Amino acid sequence: MHKxxxxxxxxxxxxxxxxxxxxxxxxxxxxxxxxxPHAASRAARFFVEKFPGRSMYAVKANPxxxxxxxLWDSGxxxxxxxxxxxVRLVARTLPDATLCFMHPVKxxxxxxxxxxxHGVRVFSLxxxxxxxxIMRATRDAADLTLCVRLRVSSEHSKLSLASKxxxxxxxxxxxxxxxxxxxxxxxxCFHVGSQAMTPEAYAQAMxxxxxxxxxxxxxxxxxxxxxxxxSSYPGMEPPPLERYFETIHRAFESLPVSYxxxxxxxxxxxxxxxxxxLIVRVEKRRGDELFINDGAYGALFDAAHIGWRFxxxxxxxxxxxxxxxxxSFYGPTCDDMDHMAGPFLLPADTxxxxxxxxxxxxxxxxxxxxxxxxxxxxxxxxxDDEPMTSLYVPVEREAATNVVTL
Length: 406
Ligand SMILES: *Cc1c(COP(=O)(O)O)cnc(C)c1O
Fold this sequence. Notes:
Blueprint: H1 20-25, E1 32-35, H2 37-50, E2 54-58, H3 65-73, E3 78-81, H4 84-93, E4 98-101, H5 108-118, E5 122-125, H6 128-137, E6 145-149, E7 157-159, H7 169-182, E8 185-189, E9 194-196, H8 200-216, E10 222-224, H9 241-253, E11 262-265, H10 269-272, E12 276-286, E13 289-292, H11 301-305, E14 312-315, E15 324-330, E16 339-347, E17 355-358, E18 380-382
Parallel strand pairs: 1-18, 2-3, 2-11, 3-4, 4-5, 5-6, 6-8, 8-10, 10-11, 13-15
Antiparallel strand pairs: 1-12, 7-9, 12-13, 12-17, 14-17, 15-16
Helix pairs in contact: 2-3, 4-5, 5-6, 7-8, 8-9
This protein binds pyridoxal-5'-phosphate.
C-alpha cells in the first residue's frame, strides 16, 4: 500500500493507521484518498460466503492493484475484465486469477492476446459478428465458455446499462444456437444496471433468461447475473444484500438448466464502494456553495454528471456545533461543469480552510480521476476506521450515524 505520511507531515510510522481528523490536522494541500482494505475484504468475504454461486470482481469499478490483492486474499478468484489493459493488469497482479472477458464488443487483437498469452477462456458476446470474431481470434478453439449477453431492463437501477449491449428478444434464439455449436460451455449473462434498488430487477431478468432458454432449446451451463448489486448512499439505501441473493437463488433453481449448471455474478460497486473515501479542503465559500479541491475531473465524476450523492462530514476538532445546511460543491478546474449539485449536508459554519471527508468513493470515484487542468492527486493513506456508511457492518460495532445495516 502507498503511504505518504511524511508528505502529510505526519510523524506516525508508515504502518500506523491514521484517522481523517489526524489527516485534516496535518493540513494537506492536495486531496487525500483514504483506503480501507478491511472494508473491501469484508465485502469480498460476504459475497464469497453468502452469494449462492461464484462472485467475480468487475475490475472497471476500481482497478487498483492494492485492491485486487485485497480481494484475492479474501477469496475472490475470478475477475471480470473488459479491455486488454485490464486483462494485462490483473494477469500481472494476480498471476493465478481466472479472467473472464465480459465486454460484448472487443478488438480481435485483444481477444487473441487474451486467449494466447493470458489463458482467458471465458468471453461474452451479443451478436453473431462478435461470435465470428472470437472464433477467428482463437482459431476455432474447442475450450471456450461463451456467454451470450441478453438485453434486460434497467428500470430498477440508478444507472442504466440497457441500451448499449445485449441481444434483443428477437435475436437470442439464433445467437444461443450458434454459440452452443461453437462453445465448450454455454453461458447466458445480463446486467440489470448499476445500483439496482430492488431484488425484483434480477427476478425480472431471470424471466428473460428462462424465455430465451426455452425458445432456443439449448443446454445452458452458466447463468451469470452480472453486476448491479447496490451500496448505500444518501437517499439510496437499498434492502439487505441477502434478499438479492435469495431472489437470485430461487430464480436460478427454477430455470431449465442442467443440474451441473453454475451461477455467477459480477459485482463491481458492492465490493469496492466502501474501500475509499476522499479528504478535500474548502478553498472558498460563496453562500451555500463550497469551492473544494477535487471535483468532476477528479473522483467526483458521478456527483457532477449524474447527480450522485455521497455522504460527507466536516473534519474539525472539536466538532462544529452549527446546524447542518445544504451545500453544493464546485471543483478546482476552470470549468463551469465542474459542479456537484448535492445537496451535501454540512454544518452551517463550514468555511474556507475546513477539511471535508467525502465517503463511498471506492467504486467509480477514484477510478475515474483525471489530471485535467493540473489538478488531481495520488496521495493515499491506509486507515482502519469504519467507512461512513456500510452494508456489511453489524449494528453493534458501528460508531458512525446514518448507517444502513443488514
Ligand atoms: C460495469 C459492469 C459490472 C459491474 O457493475 P456494478 O454495477 O458495479 O456491480 C459487471 N459486469 C459488467 C459486464 C459490467 O459492464
